[in-house]
Each structure stands twice: as structure tokens, then as C-alpha cells.
Write a structure and sequence with these properties.
Largest sheet: 5 strands, antiparallel
Number of domains: 3
Radius of gyration: 32 Å
Shape: globular
Oligomer: single chain
Number of strands: 19
Number of helices: 30
Strand order of the largest sheet: 12-13-19-15-16
Strand content: 5-15%
Length: 857
Amino acid sequence: MASRSRDLSPRTQSADTWWARLSPPARHAACLGLLLLVAAAFYSPVLLEGKTIHGGDVVSWRANAEALIDYQEQTGERALWAPNVFSGMPAYLINYGIVVPQLDTLVNSLRGALWPIEHVFLLMAGVYFLIIYLRRDSLAGLLGAVGFGFTTYIPILLAAGHQTKFVALAYAPFVVLAFVYALRNPSLLAGLLFAAALSLQLRAKHPQITYYVMMVLFLWWIVELIGAVREDAATPFAKSTGWLALGTGLALLMVAQPYLATYQYKQFSTRASEAATAGAQGGGAMAWDYAMRWSQGIKEIVTLVIADAFGGAGQTYWGPKPFTAGPHYVGGVMAALAGLALWQVRRRVVWGLGAAAGITMLFAFGRHAEWLNRLMFNYFPFFDAFRAPETWLSITALLLAVLAGFGLDYALRREPARGRRKNRPDSRQRPILIAFAVAFGAVALLWMVRDTVFDFEKPNEEQRIVQAIQRQNPNLSAQNRRVQQAVRQEIQRRKDQRRTDFTTDAQRTLFFLFVAGGALVLYRRETIQPWVAGFIVVGLVTVDLWGVDQRYLGSDQYSSGQDAAQEIPTYAFDRFIKQQREGAGGPGHFRVLSLAEGNPTNTARPSYHYQQIGGYHGAKLQRYQDYLDHILQISRGGPPNENALDLMNTRYIVARQQLPGTEVVHRSQQSGVLVLQNPDAVPRAFLVGQTDVVPDPQATWQRIRSSDFDPRQTALLPEALDRPVTPIDSASTATVKLERYTPAEIEWTVQTDAPRLLVASEVYYPAGWNAYLDGEPVPIHRVNYLLRSVHIPEGEHRLVMRFEPAVDRIGTWVAGVATALDYGGILWLAGVPYIRRRFFNAESGSEDEARSGTADD
């Protein structure tokens, strides 16, 4: 129901140009072909050399998912539990494949050979179609597509391995397109199309981007609401809103798998809300300081038009964020055209896009705009669920790209005949000149007064340099004259380099602004054809963004193999531990603590090789985080607690020095890394005959840490068992034998001469793990704060634990039904009218002709 254009001028192209003589399908085909060509050229190593882009996060994911992938290859079944990461955790956020097929299934089938070209093209095609729908201008669509497809954030995401975020951004333009279509065409079909688009983006499994897009649509909806009230058009607007609400609800049902399981897991994870924290079940809401850590500096927003205004990546960056992989850059030409659209194109769609662009920019400032973001963080739903506010700028870049398309359409559109007067200058020439002059002047002014506005020094940089010098020379104090002189020289060197980078990129932006603005003015003066001016602007933007993008996605970011596993190193100690695992009978007989590679909770590499008590993941189980913080206590700088190691079946420790109570069983000749054996590690499952009830978590942690506690003899329970257990003495017989261990199922043979409690050194997770004793279901009790236990009666028994979460089955069923309804409805509503026109009208015409012929006869 969006307002119609007030600009009724002729189309961009003159009727006598070759471009205008092309049919619309031919122009669209040419533009889409150019976009595909540009994407393939930029990512040419994929096609020409068979390389791909993995990134650090993809390599970490591959390490975490190894056990799951192996199981699926061997059995053909999905595994929903990841045993190699943090002693075991649900695989929903590691390798949880989507079962119900949708349109993205077809796109994903191309990922093996073409990644990321197919999704880059999809992203640009989405922007192109969005602008075509809004303005019917192919050159404007081409500009917006290139402007967003090559904004620096896209290659930076790919280089870092943030694939789900990138895929979510690729579907963002289609969600916006479906939204505006529903506003203009309130109907069931529009609601179903919005549901399809939104579900595709949600299936990318990066809800942060979806949340940001929905926030933009909400802001746009408010602008449309105001316009509808003012124009007395509330009824059609209400219909559009109703269909959008229906589409949103249906989309959520279409992604019940995987999101139902993910939501359930969140309640037990470190990302849970405070309302879910019962008995240490979940963690607290994300803290303000943590959530706002990657806030875009207010001055740093200048990187949108001067790429390296605050340095590039790594050590060259001097902005207020802890670090960054590169700037958010859209280019001066895109910014100038977006400003031109906001100034001259008086349409609600532009106002909605502009308002959303401004507010998302304020959200990106995070803690630097606390007056707004603190309010949103405290009161707006789900705003506190996501960190790194600078991510908002990825959506700002999309909005600026669409606005720039509007600006180019305005600049190239011929003036209405009633507005042209003989011997009078073109009325659109002046706004174009002003828009580009303002952008040119702003960049030039920043360049000239750079030392007044910017200090080119990173916060606390002097202190960090002093610390670096002292690490190399521990006997030197910070007040030492030589230290002070060295610090001043280093800071001056860095500042000089940063000024040079700033100047180079400012001059670069000025050049592109001058040429692009000049091309548009030449067209307005009827010196060149409109299509020539349009392609010049598109070409300049492509060259501009291409050049900056290559700084952050060069040849060194490409990998020669398609499988990220090839980038996971295997060391001598890995081979030794794997030999010990095979000698013990395979996976499930022991775990490993890896200390040789730094913080064991920040490294995923060992998970590729064996089960470890550490790992790398952004959403651990809260109960396991408590184990790391309060029982293992490895973050406090001392050695890990011995009982904590024993409790988790930690037989081997990889370290650079020997720890108390361990034996050196392997030493790597080249690196000197040691493999230490912990002789006191409990078996993966064992029987105890004594239980103590300790309901308080803190008291449980303290008891486990105590040297008086023996996990082989006593189990700590939060509440009493309803069945007795018998103590174990020298005359007792109690054995447990591991028969089968997979990510989906564990099987033991248990023999005991009296009722006992079997303690499994497996992480307790009540939402999916079920136990069966001799085929009959039995309850799983939580023991020793984070482990599982089952009461075993006297005799010989077969105990099986299976991970079979009902939420996965329910989610798959709901998603399948909802998807069938949505896609079936779209096919019916879109297909039936076509069939009627194509066949029934033709038959009717034939009958009329037959009747006419009969009458004539």
C-alpha cells in the first residue's frame, strides 16, 4: 500500500538509444549477466584454480563437527549430540542440518563447487530486483546490486568464515522485496511470499541479521502507518499489515526445525535469559559491557566514505573497538547518490529507507550512543540478545545501496516536458551538482583538518607499547628514559602511517566523486547518453569497492581444498593420543585436556582428533560453564583442579610442563609438548554405593574441589533418590563394560551384586537424553552437579542411553506441514490464474470461433 511515485517523468533511457531499444527482459538478462560476471571475476580463484574460502570460523566449525560428520557418513543418520566439544553438548549450533527442503536447498546444492559466487550473485540479484520493483530502472538496480554486493563487509565476512551471517545477508533483499510487495498488494499471495522469503533468511541460521532486517521493516512500517493515516488509507494498510503478520507467523512455523530445538537449548545455555535461571539451568542475560564491546565509534563512521580513515585490519586499526577485520565502506559515490535521493525523491519509501538507515547507524554506535541503546537494551524485545553493535552497519549498507539506486534513477531520469523550458538549464543539474559538491567538500574538509578532528592514536596504545617492551626486557621500568623515547618514536611512526593512509583514501574518494559527478552533469547537459553516464557511475563504484575489497580478501585467504579439514593440523602428540584411543577400544573411553595451545576453552582444533573437556563455542551449556569456572578453575591461572579432571574422565593432558599427580607418557621431539597421563581419571561409567544430598550448587562445587571427595565412592545429588543403594566393599562385585559409543547412543553391560548407582561421566542434559535398562525406560538423575546417573538393581543388565529429543521430531513435522501449505498456496494462487488465461481463455476463443463459423455456414 506504499505511496505511488510523484515523479511521472519519462524513463531513464531515450527511445533512440540501443539500450532503450532492448526489451525489458533483455535488459534484465544483460544486467544479471553482468552481475554474475563481476562476482565470478572477483572470486575467480574459485573457478580458475578450484580454490575456496574457509576462514577461521569455518575451520573451527569443521573441527567441532568431525565426530558428527563421521557418524553420518558411516550410518546415514544425523547425530544431534557433539561428544568432542566441552565433554559433549547438543549439536544444534554446530552441525544441525535442516531436513525440510525449500528453495534454498537448490541454491545450497551449488555450494560445493561455486562457493561463494552463487550466494554473492543471489545477494546482488535480490538488490537488483528490489530496486527494479521500486523504480523500474535497470541501471539503478545494477548500481544498488554492486554497491551492496561489494561493500567491504561482505568479503570481510567471507574471509573470517562468518558464512551463516553472509548467507542471511544474501536473503535480506528478498525479505525487503516481499515486504514492500505486501504493502502495495495486500493479499494472501503477498503474505505467503513474505513467509517464504522470511523463512529462507531464518534458515541461514543467523537470527541476529534477521532481527536487524525485521527492525528495518518495523521502522518502515511506522512511516507507512503515518502516511496511511494522513491519506485516509487505513483500510488497505490494515489489510497489508494483517497479511504480513500472517506471513511472519507462517515463516516461524516453517523454521520450527531447527529453531524449536535451538530455542530449547538456549534455555540451558550461557545465552539464556534471567527468567530461565532455575537451579543454574541457564545463565544471566547478556551483560551491557559484553554486548556493546564492538561498538562503532562515532567518528569512525567516516569509514563509510574514507575506507582506511581508522586504519584497516589488525595492527593498522586504531579505532575504539578491541580490534576489527576491516572497515565498513560503501564509497563516496554511493553516499552522494543516497543523499541526493533523500533530498529530492519525495516518496514514503525513501523516507522509510532513510529513517531506517539513520536509526540503524545509531544502533551501530552502541555504547557511544547510550542514550538510545541503553533504553533499547533494557526494554525492547530481544535487543539484548545480540552483541557487536557494529553489525547494524551491514543493514545500513543495504539501505544506502537501495537509496543510491533511487539517486541514480533521479539523476538519469529525463525531466518532464512541462518542466523543461527553452534555453533554460536542466532543473536536475543543480541538485546533482550540490549533492556531489557537498560530498566532495565534506571529504576534502576532513582531509584538510584531519589533525584537528583525529588524533590517530588508539586508546591506551602507549600503555600497550610499554607492556610489549617490558615483556622483552622485564628489568626496564615504564619511566625509563629509553623506554619513553622508544614509545614516543613508535607512536609517531604509527601516526605518520595512519595520516598517510587517511590522505590516500580521502584523495581516492575525491577522485571517484569528481568523475561520477562529472559524468552525470555531462548527461544533464546532453553531452553523453544516459546509459553511458549510468554505466560510468556503475563502473566507478565497482572499481572503487573492488580495490578496497581486495585489501581484505586477497589470494592468501583462499584455500586449495574444498574441505576445511585440510587446514586442521595434526601434531605428533595427536597421533600418540589417537593410538591410545584405538588401543582402549575407540571413542568413549577417555577425554583430553589440551593446555599446550593456550586457553583450552578457545581452541576447537583438538575436537577434530579426540574428545576433549575444552573446546570453542559461543554458547556453551551454562552448567558446563559453571564446571569450568567453579570446579576446574582453569581461568584462575593455577593448575586445574585434580578432582575436576578425574570427574570428567580426563586421562591425558597436553601441556608444556608436567602437572602434579601426572606421568609423562609422550614428549614431542620438535615442539617439546608433553602428553601427561592422569592415573586417577574415573572410567567413563562406574558404580557407586554411597550418595550425599547437596542441593546448593556452591556447596556442591566446593565439595567436589575438596581433596576429601572421592568421585569413585560417593555421588552428590541435588535431591534424595527414591531407591536405596548399597555401599561397595572388598567383597562386592560391580562391573561396567562399555559395549558401544556413538554420538547418538551409548550402551553398557552392567553387573552388580546389590542395588547401586551408575555414574556416567557424560554431561547431563535433560532435554533429549533417555535411558533404557533392559529395554525399559528409566529416569536419568543429575549427579556431581553436571553428570548423569541411573539406578541399577541387583543383577546383570543392559543399559542404553539415547539422545532422541522430541523437539527435533516435532519441529520437523511442523516445518514440513507449514512449508507444504506455504509453497502449495503460492503455486495455487499464482498458477491457477495463469492456467485459466493460458488454456481456458484459449478454449473459449476457439468455441466462439466455431460458433461464428457455424453461423456463417
